[in-house]
## 1
Amino acid sequence: MSLDAIPIHVVPPGEPGLTGNAPPLLRELLEMVRRLLATGEASAIDLSALPLTPADLDWLRDKLGAGEISVTLQANGESTLNETACPGVWWVMHHNEQGAVTSQFIEVAFVPDLVKAHPQDVEIGSGYLELLVSDL
Amino acid sequence: MQGPLIDTLARRGVTRRTFLKYCATLASMMALPPTAGRAMAEAMSAARRPSVIWLPFQECTGCTESITRSHSPTIEGMIFDMISLDYQETLMAAAGHQAEEALHTAMKDNAGKYLLIVDGSIPLGQDGAYSCIGGRSNVDILKEAAQGAAAVIAVGSCASFGGIPKANPNPTGAVSVSDLVKDKPIVNIPGCPPIPVVMTGVLAHYLTFGSLPELDDKGRPKSFYGDTIHDRCYRRPFYDQGKFAKTFDDEGARQGWCLFELGCKGPVTHNACATVKWNGGTSWPVESGHGCLGCSEPDFWDGGSFYKALSAPADPLKFAAVAAVVGAGAGVAVSVANRVKKSAAKATHETTTLADLEK
Ligand code: SF4
Ligand code: SF4
């Protein structure tokens, strides 16, 4: 029997709407971007830790817009790291294998850490390349 | 299994990015600043395995099941593997005298440094004879093992508060770890059973920062037990609108309304079910249509019927006011919003305990 056979329809209790918690985040982002430019220091806002409604998140995403780069990472479920219309501001979403959002951040960085290859991993890659070359 | 954790994970097909992603989410769940995820990943991937001794007392093994059994090998499971679990009766291959010897060797070699995990309550009746291992009572073993421990982690409601063995009339005279151990730091991870990630979170915190996380007045990590179920329940808007299911099969139940009148103990229960959920984030009791039983609070079994509504707090307006305060806090200082919210929630809820339940 599939779950659909159980007649429970959860009705969303009306759009909770905007709480006014999103606009201050834009100000905070501005500070973070300025800091990135001045010192090169990357930073992030943890969106799941804040009392934001879906409407707030939509508003924020809409304001920040979409940029040129979107990165998809397949690691224990999909993660997306999308640059917004403000270069250096990335909307980062982590999903688990079931597709549920496990955490959500706005990252301010030239390149998000997760995208960069780690030197130790590069070393492993170089070992593999050496192997390929030695087989030539 | 030796060497840094990252190598162990790599051997099991877990990439560095998977681990970084996991740590970012864990840090977020633990209400640590976003940058902590990276620090955690770095510290943990290089961490040395701490010696852990796990003593099971008057328990049902449900807590061990919760943490070690999942459908697929989870990172939780692997972090659990990274500790040097020197004694765990359910999982260890050794038995009898061999097992007891392993326990004593671990205690001697790592004196003052090992983490002691306890699940189950400790019976004091009949000089502790109700539960013995290798001819020694639980209370004796606990006292000996606690002496050399760096800290004690009480896993599950039984070890934390006495749990079901302690339920009225408590035939074995069961008590909690903190009733007996007074001179060591103790972390309580209650729940019947506790959520696996809470346990990983405490271990991760210990491995990363070399210290235990911040605790509430009942010895529970604030990051997971700081909010009530009700604070974070997705049915909360129905509560605020006064829409309650009256029976488990009425129209309200079908519409997914609040389960308060069906006995939900969410308003007085501090746990992370509403956000972390169960079974790899699949669902949780309230989402499955049943009220919260209050399993992570002391004496939840004696709190009256699971199906009788809480007598207090019953004023939806009071909660709406808290929600407004939360909003204001977030507007002022976003980075501390979570903590502001938590303390606001704490201040409002701490006056109502399970003892206030209608008997
Ligand atoms: S009473 Fe229970 S079901 Fe209702 S909002 Fe609170 S936690 Fe959710
Ligand atoms: S919903 Fe309540 S009773 Fe159920 S596991 Fe969570 S805290 Fe325990």
## 2
Amino acid sequence: MKEYDIVIIGGGPAGLAAAISAREEEIENILILEREDKLGGILNQCIHNGFGLHIFKEELTGPEYAKRFIDKVLKLNIPYKLNTMVIDFNRDKIITAVNEEDGLLEIKAKAVVLAMGCRERPRGALNIPGSRCAGILTAGTAQKYVNIKGYLPGKKIVVLGSGDIGLIMARRMTLEGAKVVEVDELLPYSSGLKRNIVQCLNDYNIPLKLSHTVVDIKGKERVEGVTVAQVDENRNIIPGTEEFVSCDTLLLSVGLIPENELTRKANIEISGNTGGPMVDETMETEIPGVFACGNVLHVHDLVDFVTMESMEAGKNAARYVKGMYEKKGEVVELTAGEGVRYTVPVWVHTGNLGDGVDVRFRVSNVYRDKYISVYFDDVRIMHLKKRILTPGEMETIRLKPAFFKDRTDIRKITIKVEGE
Amino acid sequence: MIKKELICIGCPLGCSLEVLVENGSVIKISGHSCKKGEDYAVKECTNPTRIITTTLEVINGAEAMVSVKTERDIPKDKIYECIRALKGVKVEAPVEAGQVIVENILNTGVNVIATKNVARKA
Ligand SMILES: Cc1cc2nc3c(=O)[nH]c(=O)nc-3n(C[C@H](O)[C@H](O)[C@H](O)COP(=O)(O)OP(=O)(O)OC[C@H]3O[C@@H](n4cnc5c(N)ncnc54)[C@H](O)[C@@H]3O)c2cc1C
Ligand code: SF4
């Protein structure tokens, strides 16, 4: 069995950043495994601009952002295998993969970085009744058709869900000559970025119908239209509001799910809140030497944060391999309190905070003029006024070592949204 | 005098702005909560611009399409014209990211450049 110091599963922005930072920590024996025929992950099909504002202070397109990291991986001579699908992974860090050249590959790794990204929630997960005809696809699949294959999958389109990919595709298909009739969103707010609502919908006069959903799909071989209805605050359909909208294609943009089949194979517990594994401040999962980062851990809206988080994972994987890895202090659990959906990490070691640990989280509703509070047990140690909090935007707070000074026996750290 | 309604994209707050425009210049802005919103309103009402991205067909390429963008932002009202001008443009492989595909599109002084590499078909 071939042995490696660090094996990285997935060659998207998360995997690339982890590989680069591990190499910068002088680990030579690294391998990236990627099932597609090129590195870069989902960014290859995201041809729009808006990537890299935080890290590079410029607006790059997806392929350009990916290229910066791919070029670096090539320059650092980090080995990778393409067209290689990892099919199994266990607690002894033995990885099984398949590709045409090697057939079945068994690899043993000292440390593993999980960077498999996420996939879109398919129609099956939604339970829309109606016909199973052609013309129903996820927004990301449509993105692949249009941007990679050069083929327009429909002419008259309804988008269900106002996630960023749906918004981006509403604009993209309009520019390619399709008519986007409307975007329907079940919730009373959009989970998409403001910028995308303005520049992808408003710029093209595409209506966004909030508190609306598709209740039926009509068509025999191909979609002929959908029935759209309004919902009340409990998301129940308001009778009498049903309206038939003629279209030949329904695009779904109804959320992303971290791709954790492999994580489950190793029996790593998956958080019900993020859909990803639980990690501590080093991005390490419950199995020593197994790290996770990027969309496989929790769904990110900005790739810049994927890169930052993954750099951290790669660095810590390297330190683990070098035996320089020591987590001092006690383990304290982080919990999502009132108004907070989840936190990443889920645990921190009080003596391992360096110059601070970033805790990323999402709120569960839209809040105006509220506070983000951090409690150590019952003591409030941070209180930040926020004019707006929305589930669509990831929030970050930094736990500084100073907070822990003179405090022992902290059992629980809670992050919550408070009125005052 | 015309009244324009905008949503500021400066931050997640997304303030609804009302702008009064006369003879092409902004005379009054309301609804903003900070300077950024003011700047945005002026820009959007006097000289709105966007970067345009699309894909073009590749001839003899290892891949079917190459993604391209306008190197800088161009006037918003030229979006469709720009897309139309690019319709049917084909690029011979190999293509390199950064390569100029169309010079000075629609006389805007802005080039359309490739955003990725496409190798020649083997
Ligand atoms: C359609 C879309 C549009 C987006 N638009 C924006 C935007 O405008 N701005 C922005 O900042 N961010 C955007 N994002 C977010 C950003 O692109 C992602 O957060 C980022 O790509 C996540 O990186 P990742 O490496 O975690 O995942 P991915 O990019 O998904 O990479 C994961 C990689 O792992 C590989 N993989 C998975 N399983 C296996 C396996 N078993 N074996 C081998 N390889 C495997 C996959 O093939 C893939 O290449 C968008 C995301 C999507 C999905
Ligand atoms: S005006 Fe200021 S506060 Fe309001 S959305 Fe714009 S940037 Fe945000």
